[in-house]
């Protein structure tokens, strides 16, 4: 299913059950989130009551332990050509379990993003509203280079280079009639 498939029309509000079946739409959301990284490094956790044993390592109680969404989300063995936006990698047939294992944009484990389901719902609705059939905005890139948006600096979330002006677009309203 692609964005132009009639999962939504002016007469019909998009419904979750239909959006959730749109494999290419889901793949775009996953790939967008993967390259957005969420929190580049989640806040560190500490086990205050016992050491953490991982394989041959014993991490003393109280040691802050964290993970890097950058390293997990751009592991070339899991996501070949990792900085390329390729939604197709998430489609059935291409999608491998290790892609879910590495995906860290919404955190992991007991402190996973509380808004995780809301994120998927609103991103799907937003993409269909912007790129689906019917009346929609037409966006044209305006004076934006890749370096204006590429993650370069690690804050809590990823930031573009100092002085970057961000993603700028000219918006025109297109009527389907
Ligand atoms: C695209 C949007 C979003 C992204 C990428 C995102 C990402 C994340 C990440 C990576 C964490 C874990 C941080 C860590 O490990 O320290 C987190 C935690 C959290 N997020 Fe989100 N989030 C998003 C939207 C939302 C929304 C819409 C809500 C609420 C409606 C929300 C509520 C929370 C809360 C409450 C936590 C803390 C959970 C905890 O520590 O127990 N987030 N988010």
TrEMBL record:
Gene3D superfamilies: Cytochrome P450. Keywords: Heme, Iron, Metal-binding, Monooxygenase, Oxidoreductase. Pfam families: p450. The keyword Metal-binding applies. Its cofactor is heme. Belongs to the cytochrome P450 family. PANTHER family: CYTOCHROME P450, CYTOCHROME P450 12A4, MITOCHONDRIAL-RELATED. This is Cytochrome P450 E-class, group I.
């Amino acid at each position: 299913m692609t964005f132009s498939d009639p999962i939504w029309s002016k007469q019909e509000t998009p419904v979750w059950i239909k959006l959730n079946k749109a494999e290419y739409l889901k793949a775009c959301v996953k790939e967008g989130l993967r390259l957005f990284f969420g929190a580049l490094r989640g806040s560190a956790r500490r086990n205050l009551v016992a050491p953490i044993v991982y394989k041959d390592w014993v991490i003393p109680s109280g040691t802050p332990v964290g993970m890097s969404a950058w390293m997990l989300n751009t592991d070339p063995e899991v996501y070949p050509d990792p900085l390329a936006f390729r939604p197709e990698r998430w489609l059935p047939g291409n999608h491998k379990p290790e892609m879910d294992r590495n995906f860290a944009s919404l955190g992991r484990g007991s402190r996973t993003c509380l808004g995780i389901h809301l994120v998927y719902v609103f991103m799907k609705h937003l993409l269909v509203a912007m790129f689906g059939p019917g009346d929609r905005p037409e966006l044209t890139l305006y004076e934006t280079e890749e370096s204006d948006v590429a993650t370069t600096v690690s804050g809590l979330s990823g930031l573009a280079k100092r002085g970057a002006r961000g993603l700028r677009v000219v918006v025109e309203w297109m009527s389907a009639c």
